């Protein structure tokens, strides 16, 4: 069984794209999520990330990130609704709490919590697509001249975390298949077995790295492979998104304020960004379709 966030080689354009091109492409969606609070821009950005993930063949990674983001989103919305006492539109008159005072739930607080939750969900989904679609070995090769040890550590984390998730699923299935007469396995027992297996795998990985020369001087720079022919489309999409987003920020074409009242403003340039994000997300992946 392969975990949802495990990298699997793919023959689509994202699988053949270079690390820098894929990073700039997916990083543009993350930049839009952090740069804007307008709900329409964030919704369009979320649709663009979903399109990029589906066309990259990482639907399982998107589903896993969506499940995690859904719980986190509900927690963020509820926390902001309770903790924030700002806003003019009071929906629920809450009780008097000794430390917090009167806990009122306002429409503005719910809207602000939704904006924050949508932003976090976009970032989680973009990183899930990156983890499942971009070869971590190529990421390590790219980062080796800058930070050899740090790049190795980051790559090992990217590889070992999905393996630990797969181990947990296998241990849980094995515990469920013991039969109805067997005593139920407690969660601490599952955690102990998972940690023990992870430590064994870490020892094996350390031994393999030592045999490959990482115990002493790190290996020299590997020869860079040929540039992928699909990189240009991903770079063009990334530059277009970054440029359009920067223009909207500079001109204030897509602004949003939650407090004291909800005030969204979307000018024609901001509307162009909303319409362009899904299209720019899909364009680099159409190369394979046109060739076939």
What does this structure look like?
- With about 290 residues, this protein is mainly alpha-helical.
- The chain has a domain at about 20-140 and about 235-285.
- Helix content is about 65%, strand content about 5%.
- It has helices at about 15, 20-35, 40-55, 60-85, 105-135, 135-145, 150-175, 185-210, 230-250, 270-280, 285-290; strands at about 90, 95, 100, 105, 255, 265.
- The strands form three sheets. Strands 1-4 form a two-stranded antiparallel ribbon. Strands 2-3 form a two-stranded antiparallel sheet.
- Strand 2 and strand 3 (about 100) form a beta hairpin.
- The longest helix has 29 residues, at about 150-175.
Features:
two-stranded antiparallel sheet, 292 residues, mainly alpha
Q: In terms of topology, how is this protein built?
A:
Blueprint: H1 13-16, H2 19-35, H3 39-55, H4 59-83, E1 90-92, E2 96-97, E3 101-102, E4 105-106, H5 107-133, H6 136-143, H7 148-176, H8 187-211, H9 231-251, E5 254-257, E6 263-266, H10 268-282, H11 287-291
Antiparallel strand pairs: 1-4, 2-3, 5-6
């Amino acid at each position: 069984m392969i975990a949802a966030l495990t990298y699997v080689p793919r023959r689509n354009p994202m699988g053949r794209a270079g690390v820098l091109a894929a990073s700039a492409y997916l990083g543009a969606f993350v930049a839009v999520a952090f740069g804007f609070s307008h709900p329409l821009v964030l919704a369009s950005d979320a649709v663009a990330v979903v399109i990029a993930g589906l066309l990259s063949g990482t639907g399982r990674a998107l589903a896993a990130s969506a499940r995690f983001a859904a719980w986190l989103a509900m927690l963020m919305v509820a926390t902001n609704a309770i903790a924030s006492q700002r806003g003019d539109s009071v929906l629920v008159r809450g009780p008097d709490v000794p430390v917090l005072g009167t806990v009122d739930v306002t429409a503005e607080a719910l809207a602000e919590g939704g904006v924050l939750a949508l932003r976090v969900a976009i970032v989680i989904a973009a990183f899930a697509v990156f983890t499942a679609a971009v070869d971590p070995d190529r990421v390590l090769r790219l980062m080796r001249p800058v930070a050899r040890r740090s790049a190795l550590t980051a790559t090992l984390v990217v590889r070992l975390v999905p393996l630990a998730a797969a181990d947990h699923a296998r241990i849980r299935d094995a515990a469920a298949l013991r039969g109805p007469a067997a005593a139920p396995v407690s969660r601490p027992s599952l955690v102990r077995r998972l940690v023990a297996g992870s430590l064994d795998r870490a020892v094996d990985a350390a031994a393999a790295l030592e045999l490959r020369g990482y115990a002493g001087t790190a290996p020299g720079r590997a020869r860079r492979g040929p540039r992928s022919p699909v990189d240009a489309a991903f770079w063009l999409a990334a530059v277009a998104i970054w440029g359009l987003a920067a223009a909207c920020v500079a001109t204030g074409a897509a602004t949003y304020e939650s407090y004291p009242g909800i005030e969204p403003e979307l000018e024609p340039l901001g509307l162009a960004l909303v319409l362009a994000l899904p299209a720019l997300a899909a364009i680099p992946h159409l190369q394979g379709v046109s060739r076939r």
